[in-house]
Amino acid sequence: MIIDQISKVKKILILGYGHEGQSSHKFLAKKFPNLKIGTADKKDGSNYLDKIKDYEIIIKTPGISPHLPEIVDTKRAGKLITSQTQIFFELCPGKIIGVTGTKGKSTTSSLIYHVLISNNIKCVLVGNIGKPMLDYLPEITPDTWVVAELSSYQLMDLHMSPHIAVLQNIYPDHLDYHKDFEEYKNAKLNIAKYQKSGDYFIHDLPLPKKPIESQLLGKHNQLNILPSIEIGKILKIPRPKILAAIKTFMPLDTRLQLINTKLGIKFYEDTLATIPEATIAAIDTLDPQTLIAGGHERHQNYVELGKKIDRSNIKTLILFPETGERIKKSVSNSSVQSFSANSMQEAINLAFEHTESGKICLLSPAAPSFTLFKDYKDEGEQYRKYITDMIRNY
After folding, report:
1. What is the pLDDT of residues 332-366, one digit of tens each?
2. What's the CATH number for 91-248?
3. Rounded Cα distance, 110 and 117, in Å
4. pLDDT(175) > 80
5. Does residue 184 surpass a pLDDT of 90?
6. Mean pLDDT, residues 213-224 taken together
């Protein structure tokens, strides 16, 4: 076990000192009072990785690429590079339900948690949602179910699998982090790689013939609902109680969320649609007239998105750099007018000008938000702000 190896050394390095790195520091300092804990972070300067050579064990934050030359050389030298996720899996006394997928994992994880809590099953929700994993350990007992949302970054170096593994989908993504799609796919499949007899692997569930009643929009959300039903069965929750809980689940922020209506125009936000497949699903669900898209370049293929726009009722494209130009080139329908926007305020002005009353304007980037915005939350907040400003000043 990693924790046993840590107990045998005098010092370790925490590589990456954001929320998760600070959480790991706090946890290990309490568990091993005599352990010397070093830290290295990008904020320390361009040579922050030089510290690695002075340590035998490194706890790496998932966001730091495993392909950096210093990290590759460290692994070749036989030093241990591990993660908070691995430590949590080793120490967690409860049973873990792990959820991954290119899209839908946050909604799926939150819905599973909601169904369990609604049926008086002791449960915590960890992973990319809320606090770092190790912060939850004190409240977890052998009777606790742990729903863990897991990214490819977290899964890549994980050498344990959850008791119940949920894989929603795999589309090309994070290709600026992973070497290629094959590596990304294998990282996702890692969620079930170390399962044992008696464990469960939930994947490739077919769409129900009759839609399951919920407050979630779209066919893709029907797929997000299904694992909670399967897990409810495993935990012997009566089906009527599972379905009743699903009906009361509220959509998460930034997922196909109606922000405001003005002059008959409905403004929807879908900023977590960071891949073209998610934007295609949003178009299918809402049938917008105006689409605001584009963002950080991750070398994704926009051919199918272009075909979807060609076949849709979209009349206006408002496109952000860096990928906006590639999205524009993927569209062959000459009746679709395209505009470039270098700020959210400019995009909203264009949306009000070119969207008809009774129609929908949809922000669904088909790319990460980092080019013009801090992250998807910042993009969503600016979308809401400038819509509100426009309405106030109209």
Report:
1. 999 999 999 999 999 999 999 999 999 999 999 99
2. 3.40.1190.10
3. 10
4. no
5. no
6. 90
Question: What are the tens digits of pLDDT across the range 291-328?
Answer: 999 999 988 899 999 999 999 999 999 999 999 999 99
Give pLDDT, residue 130. Answer: 67
Indicate the pairing of strand 290-293 with strand 316-319. Answer: parallel
Q: Which residue type, as a one-letter code, is found at position 48? A: Y
- Give dist(CA 178, CA 189) in Å, integer: 14
Cα distances (Å, whole numbers) of residue 194 to 81, 190, 198, 372: 19, 7, 12, 40
Write out the two tokens for 320: 């952000």
CATH architecture for the domain at 257-393: Alpha-Beta Complex (3.90)
Domain boundaries, the chain: 2-82, 91-248, 257-393
Residues 324, 294 contacting (CB under 8 angstroms)? yes
Rounded average pLDDT over 212-237: 94
What is the architecture of the domain spanning 2-82? Answer: 3-Layer(aba) Sandwich (3.40)
Structure confidence at residue 32 (pLDDT): 94
Token pair for 70? 């210093």
Backbone angles phi, psi at 100, to 5 degrees: -140, 175
